[in-house]
């Protein structure tokens, strides 16, 4: 079962069946950065080797630990999904080999459309893989063209939204042979604009 500072409550283990995570996954290496009495309200589950996990558990009462482990699950605040936790892009490459559910292989055209769009939500009707996606449960879903580069998404009744940062999107697109120079230039321009806006908003200017 999943281990935490003491033990994560049974209610937090529902993702095992929802995502079809096999028994050979190292459940004992999952933990949250809360004291045992707050397990039920844990918002994120992290994965680390036994040494790191044990260190965090022994010291969290006395030391503020801000960064330890790989984020594997985040608390789901949406009512559409059957499980309390959604998948995290940060840990999906490690978790995917153990998953048997909520996974869909899609073609490259659909993956390019998902990764290149600037829209937050992508209409399912615009994707060739729409029927395969609709055959899954709503909520967290892993899409992939190459299993080495899975993409965590959130699927609603009519849309799909990638949960991938812009930098990782660029990396994935580049690995697919896409010229990302225009996208990268746009990202740099937006960063500069944010800096300028912050500067002129400063009370010292």
What does this structure look like?
- 24% of the residues are buried.
- The chain folds into 2 domains: 1-101, no CATH class; 102-195, no CATH class.
- By secondary structure, it is of the alpha+beta class.
- Strands 5-7-8-9-6 form a 5-stranded mixed sheet, covered by helices on one side. A 4-stranded antiparallel sheet has the order 1-2-3-4, with no helix packed on it.
- The chain has helices at 15-18, 50-59, 92-95, 108-116, 130-134, 166-175, 181-201, and strands spanning 30-31, 44-47, 70-75, 85-87, 103-105, 122-123, 139-144, 151-155, 159-162.
Can you write the helix and strand succession as a string?
Answer: HEEHEEHEHEHEEEHH
Number of helices: 7
Work out the count of structural domains.
2
Tell me the β content: 15-25%
Number of strands: 9
Q: What is the distance, rounded to the nearest whole angstrom, between the alpha carbons of the first and last residues? A: 56 Å
The proportion of residues forming helix, as a percent range, comes to 25-40%
Record the strand order, biggest sheet.
Answer: 5-7-8-9-6
CA-atom Rg in angstroms? 19 Å
Question: Would you identify the regions where 5 or more consecutive residues have pLDDT less than 50?
Answer: 1-7
Domain RNA cytosine-C(5)-methyltransferase NSUN2-like PUA: 102-177
Organism: Strongylus vulgaris (Blood worm)
GO molecular function: tRNA (cytidine-5-)-methyltransferase activity; tRNA binding
GO biological process, one term: tRNA methylation
């Amino acid at each position: 079962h999943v281990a935490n500072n003491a033990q994560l409550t049974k209610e937090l283990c529902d993702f095992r069946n929802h995502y079809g995570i096999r028994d050979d996954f190292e459940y004992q290496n999952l933990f949250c950065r809360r004291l045992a009495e707050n397990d039920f309200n844990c918002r994120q589950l992290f994965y680390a080797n036994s040494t790191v996990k044990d260190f965090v558990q022994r010291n969290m009462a006395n030391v503020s630990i801000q960064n330890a482990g790989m984020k594997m699950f985040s608390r789901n605040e949406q009512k559409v999904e059957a499980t309390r936790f959604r998948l995290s892009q940060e840990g999906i490459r490690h978790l995917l080999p153990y998953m048997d559910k909520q996974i869909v292989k899609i073609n490259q055209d659909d993956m390019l459309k998902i990764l290149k769009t600037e829209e937050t939500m992508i209409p399912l009707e615009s994707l060739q893989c729409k029927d395969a996606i609709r055959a899954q449960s709503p909520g967290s879903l892993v899409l992939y063209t190459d299993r080495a580069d899975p993409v965590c998404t959130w699927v609603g009744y009519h849309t799909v939204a990638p949960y991938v940062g812009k930098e990782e999107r660029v990396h994935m697109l580049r690995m697919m042979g896409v010229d990302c120079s225009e996208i990268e230039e746009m990202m740099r321009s937006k960063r500069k604009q944010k800096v300028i806006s912050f500067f002129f908003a400063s009370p010292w200017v």
